Amino acid sequence: MAAQESDGRVHLAEVLGALSLATDLGMGQPLGHAIRCCMIATGLAEELGLPAAARSEVFQVALLRYIGCTADAFEVAQVAGGEVALAVAVAPFVMGEPEQERQAAGTGDVTEARAAAMRAHCEAAGLLAARLRLGAGTVGALRHSFERWDGAGYPAGLSGTEIPQAIRIAVVARDVELWARRGGMTVALDVTRVRRGNAYDPTVVDAFRAVGESLLRVADAGWPAMLAAEPAPTLIPVQRLDGMLEVLADFADAKLPAALGHSRSVARLAEGAAGELGLGPAAVTQARRAGLVQDLGRVAVSNRVWETPGPLSWEAQEKVHLHPYLSEQVLLRTPKLRPLAGLAGAHHERLDVSGYYWIQQVMDVDQARQAVEREADVIVAQGGEAGGHSGFVGTMTLVPQVVDVAAGTPVVAAGGIASVEDSRPRSLLGPMAWRWAPDFSPRGKCRSVRRGRT
C-alpha cells in the first residue's frame, strides 16, 4: 500500500466509488448500479449545459444518493421484515404512484413509516457527506434525496426549482437505469413520459429523451470510465484517507444499533496487535484500515437475519457467511483500496480452519499467487470483460495463467463466457480448472462452492 501512496494523494472519486458500491449492496442492487446512475446523471448534466462545478455536484450526488440507506434499516426491518428485499421490490416505484409502491411492497398503508424512513435516510446522507468534506451543494442535495417535482416528496415537500438541481437529475438517472435494466430503453422512455412534470423535472426528462440511448451504452463502461467522467477530478491528501474510511465504517455499522462503533474498535485492536507483533508501519496502517472496512458486506444481509434470536437456519447462515466475500468485492473494485481486500475477505477465518470459507477474486497472476499464499478456498479469475470491467487481462488468457499457479486450488472463470461453445476451450484445462456457471451470482457462490468441494 505504501507504494500506492508515494505521491501522497488519493483520488476522491475512488473512495466515493467504493462507498457507492456498498450502497448497492445495502439496496440489493448489483454492484456498479450507482456507478451507472452516476454516468447517466453526469451525461444528462452535460446535455443540459451545466458548468463544471454543477456537474461535479451531480456526479457526487448520483454516486452517493443512497448513503443513508443503513440509517433506517433497523426500523424498516421491524415494519416490513426483510428490508433489503423490500428495497429491491419498491425501487422502480419509489418515485412513481404511491399505490404502485404499496403493491410492490406487499404491505398495507405505511405512509407514516415510509416518510420517517426517508427523512432518516436523508439526514444520515447529509451527515455522512459532510464528514467526507464534500461541498455544500452536494451535502444540501443529499439532504433532499426523495423530493418530487410536484411537491409530494420527502423530506421537505419541495417542488419545482426549489429542489436542488443535482437531485432532480439523479432521481431521473437512477430510475431510468432501473427501468432500462428491467425492460429496455422503450420502457425507460415510457416511465419518463408518465412521470414528466410529476416526480421528474421536465427539462431533465427532455434531455434524457434526446441522448438517453447513448448514455445507457456509456454507463456500462465501468470503473475507469466513471473516473474519466468526473467533471473536476479531485486529489486529496492521503492523510485524509483514514477519516474517509471511518465514514465507510460508520455506514456499515449503522445497519445494526448494537454494532455502532464496532468497526472503529476492530481497527484500533488490529492496529495495536500489529504493533505488538512488531510489524512494520505499512502493515500496521494496512491492519487498521482493513479493520475499518471489513464489515462493508454486512449491509447486504437483512437485519431480519442479524437480529434472529437463537441459532440461525441453514439459509440464514449461508447469507451471513457471504458478507466477508462481499466486503472483498467492494474493495477489489477500488484500485486504491484493493490491498485491503484480502484481509477483509478473510476476517472470519480461524487458525483451526473452522471459519467462513474464503473466495478470492484475482485479476492477474501476482494476485493469484497471493491468494494461494493466503490459502484461499476458491480463486475466481476475473477477466477484463467480466461484470464491473475491473480485470486487466482477457478471461481466456488469464484463466490458464491462474491455473498454473493455483497449486490445486479450484479456479472459477468469471467473465467472457457467453455460451457453452465459449466454454469448450476451458475444458482442456481439466476438471479442477473451471466450473460452468452462467449465473454465478454471489448467492450461487455461497450455495455451490464450499470448503473442500466444487
Can you walk through the features of this model?
By secondary structure, the chain is mainly α. The chain is built from 22 helices and five strands. The strands form two sheets. Strands 3-4-5 form a three-stranded parallel sheet. Strands 1-2 form a two-stranded antiparallel ribbon. α2 packs antiparallel against α3 (52-64), α9 (165-183) packs across α11 (202-219) and α17 (314-332) crosses α22 (442-448). It is globular. The model is unreliable at 1-6 and 416-454 (pLDDT under 50).
H/E series: EHHHHHHHHHHHHEHHHHHHEHEHEHH
Shape: globular
Helix-strand category: mainly alpha
Distance between the termini: 33 Å
What is the tally of helical segments? 22
Note the beta-strand portion. under 5%
Short description:
With 454 residues, this protein is mainly alpha-helical.
Considering the chains and any ligands shown, give keywords for the structure.
two-stranded antiparallel sheet, mainly alpha, 454 residues, 3-stranded parallel β-sheet, globular, 55% helix, disordered N terminus, single chain, disordered C terminus
